[in-house]
Amino acid sequence: MGEDLLGGRYRLVRLIGRGGMGAVHEAVDTALARRVAVKQLLAAGGLGADPTALTRFRREAQAQARISHPGVVHVYDSGVHEGTPYLVMELLDGLGLAALVEAHGPLPPALAARIGLAMCRALAAAHEAGVLHRDVKPTNVTVTRGARVVLQDFGLARLVEEPAITQAGALLGTPQYMAPDLIRGQLPGPAADLYGLGACMYLMLTGAPPLGSDPVDVGVLVERAVERGVPQLAGQERRGLPESLAGLVDALCRQDPLDRPDAASVESLLVPLLDADGERVLQDLVARCVREQAVEFVYSPPAQDSSVPELLDWAAIPRPDTATQDANRPLTLSDATRRLVLSSMTAQNAQSRQREAVNLVLRGELQEAVRMLTAVAQVCTSALGPDHPTTLTSQYWQAVCLARLGAGAEALELFSRVNAHTERKRGSEHD
């Protein structure tokens, strides 16, 4: 049987992530030869398994399709495949806002204002289209390598003219960034989304979640949200933080939604805080973090499934001491992300994935390429050996990716390793 295509058109490449409603894959649109993101509903048993989840999923498609704005992820298509609904969206490069703050720490106020302004404008466009997001949080915001700030994952979205979808005993949203009025069961409105914006800006300016970073259960977070609320920023004498920006965050995080500023007021306060070269600075910051992620991924790839033996000790590869690596700043690629990248890679599809990855490199899509090449290299090392041409070719293109991302010293180290393997292989053939 030929290759199974979702909806007869989309070939899934790798799992990007999972959420409460669905799984998101990177995929190839075979009709248009472009890479996309495909979100599938996770409800087991097909359409009838969870009517509430299915309604939310359809509402997400309708909500995002109603919004035409560069700050909202674009929806291309939707459908049902073998009883499972799916949504096709643009595939974003760059980093999630949470990962960006984790990698850098607190952002400069001007950058936080720039990102906050872009989020505010995206929310205003959604509200103008009659859509409430209801789950504004850092993991639902991406900053691309071109400094575009994009709001995504409208999985809890509500069309204003439609009734709310509820489940008995269910708390919909993320308490760390969820407006206290929603937690109390009040009907959502634009002010609830703007609270999420304020909570995200609190994270950007402080480097810490608004309700504390210590591990606590949901009940404790809910109590903090509705009782003490988000700590005040104004009057705390934080170096370099404009009092107007601190006051805006405090206002957005007020307990009563009627006391929060509207989107137009937020925009008028944020615009004067922007730096003229802020877009370039944001691009440079994202580029640096993407580079560090790529280096970490190449030098510390995810563990494979135990059924495939690992022959290459990646941890033993010496990492060059370069100015691009700050030992005091944590990198952002989690073990879970690494495992997701490898989950769909096998020895059987490794060579075809390698060809795809090389095409990605040639098109400049380096983030996707380095992940795919690392998975190919690890699978081929295990299945074919460290000196196999497919393994060495993958490592060579990994080095090309690192070089193009600006990690010159790490790229040179990897080029040297590939050359050493090649020379050793040639020497053994001549003996």
TrEMBL record:
<feature type="domain" description="Protein kinase">
    <location>
        <begin position="10"/>
        <end position="274"/>
    </location>
</feature>
<dbReference type="InterPro" id="IPR008271">
    <property type="entry name" value="Ser/Thr_kinase_AS"/>
</dbReference>
<keyword id="KW-0547">Nucleotide-binding</keyword>
<dbReference type="InterPro" id="IPR011009">
    <property type="entry name" value="Kinase-like_dom_sf"/>
</dbReference>
<keyword id="KW-0418">Kinase</keyword>
<feature type="binding site">
    <location>
        <position position="39"/>
    </location>
    <ligand>
        <name>ATP</name>
    </ligand>
</feature>
<dbReference type="InterPro" id="IPR000719">
    <property type="entry name" value="Prot_kinase_dom"/>
</dbReference>
<keyword id="KW-0808">Transferase</keyword>
<keyword id="KW-0723">Serine/threonine-protein kinase</keyword>
<dbReference type="InterPro" id="IPR011990">
    <property type="entry name" value="TPR-like_helical_dom_sf"/>
</dbReference>
<dbReference type="InterPro" id="IPR017441">
    <property type="entry name" value="Protein_kinase_ATP_BS"/>
</dbReference>
<protein>
    <recommendedName>
        <fullName>non-specific serine/threonine protein kinase</fullName>
        <ecNumber>2.7.11.1</ecNumber>
    </recommendedName>
</protein>
<keyword id="KW-0067">ATP-binding</keyword>
<dbReference type="Pfam" id="PF00069">
    <property type="entry name" value="Pkinase"/>
</dbReference>
